[in-house]
Specification:
Strand content of chain A: under 5%
Number of helices of chain B: 1
Largest interface: A-B, 29 and 23 residues
CATH topology of one domain in chain B: mini-chromosome maintenance (MCM) complex, domain 2
Strand order of the largest sheet of chain B: 2-1-7-6
CATH architecture of one domain in chain B: Sandwich
Largest sheet of chain B: 4 strands, antiparallel
Oligomer: heterodimer
Radius of gyration of chain A: 16 Å
Structural class of chain A: mainly alpha
């Protein structure tokens, strides 16, 4: 293994560009084929899988950059600018929580992803409440928390399994998965 | 999976489930029953209806057609020509809504039904119009 290349700036930049593209593709695929569970507005959030792996393999700064780039680009490319505020709130809040939990080194990617999924939906709902100026909208909180829990668990398991098998995606920073 | 999940994950999951439970109590336990249904279309009040009065409400708006029924002190959606028809399922199994934390939403038609309490309404002669009857609204005595 050529560790020199893997820790270089060019490698990190390339890898984060690839991950941003992957997250965008995931956003697009989810838009084309929405996972219909009978509850409007609930989706798997596959793009978060990429952000989660970026935190582990590239570090928080890159993860945050990928998260933000993904949100801005998918809003501009796929014409969802009005929904960007929601994505931003969910994306930033869930990133902050996931990064903090990751830094404690107590949790596996599954736990980190669980918290991310739940807080993502809390962030979106908070913005919805501010936009519509009705606190009543928090009636959906239990539903959305449950949904975030389930999707977070699915993505966490996926991320853990992928990182276990693809150990080559590493850039020196981050302690990898266990 | 083996060797991935850690003890802290389980503690976290447990904590999140507790949070969700608390959210449930907060969201579903805080409502109070009301006597008036408020129908809004596109954010503007379309009409308010007394829940103690059994009636049908036909709505033809620019967004489409909806029919609501007030029965047993509750209001529910019985007809809608929106593409998905989710609104007809909302609280249908409970016979409708009669509490301030519940609402029926027909998103394609921008129609929202909520329940509120009109203070200045004198209805002391019908004390039980909005209580009970959730599971026994029809055929409570049926022993067949």
């Amino acid at each position: 293994m050529t560790d020199g290349i893997r820790s270089g700036q060019a490698y990190r930049t390339t890898l984060s560009a690839m991950m941003t593209s992957l997250a965008l593709i995931f956003s697009y695929v989810e838009m084309l084929m929405p996972l219909n569970l009978g509850i409007p507005g609930i989706k798997l959030g596959l793009a978060n899988l990429v952000v989660l792996m970026a935190i582990y393999r590239l570090g928080g700064g890159y993860g945050f950059a990928i998260d933000l780039a993904r949100i801005f680009l998918s809003a501009l490319l796929f014409g969802n600018v009005s929904a960007m505020l929601y994505s931003l709130a969910g994306g930033i809040l869930s990133f902050a929580v996931m990064y903090l939990l990751y830094r404690t080194k107590l949790f596996s990617p599954i736990g980190v992803s669980l918290a991310g999924g739940v807080t993502h939906n809390i962030g979106q709902l908070t913005v919805a409440a501010l936009v519509t100026e009705t606190g009543k909208i928090f009636i959906y909180l239990p539903v959305l928390m449950t949904a975030g829990f389930v999707t977070g668990a699915i993505l966490g398991v996926l991320a853990a399994l992928i990182m276990k098998r693809m150990k080559w995606i590493t850039a020196g920073s981050g302690d990898g998965t266990r | 999976m083996k060797g991935i999940l850690r003890k802290a994950d389980i503690v976290l999951a447990f904590f999140l489930v507790l949070m969700c439970g608390a959210a449930c109590v907060f969201a579903y336990g805080a409502g109070e029953s009301g006597n008036t249904a408020v129908i809004r279309i596109d954010g503007k009040i379309y009409g308010t209806y007394d829940l103690s009065e059994e009636r049908e409400i036909d709505i033809h708006s620019v967004f489409g057609h909806n029919r609501l029924v007030i029965e047993n002190g509750k209001i529910r959606m019985v007809e809608a020509d929106c593409p998905d028809g989710y609104c007809k399922d909302q609280y249908a199994s409970l016979g409708g809504i009669d509490s301030s934390e519940q609402m029926i939403v027909c998103l394609p038609h921008r129609l929202v039904v909520t329940v509120s309490n009109e203070e200045n309404r004198d209805e002391k002669d019908v004390p039980d119009a909005v209580s009970g009857q959730v599971y026994t609204s029809d055929g409570g005595d049926g022993d067949d």
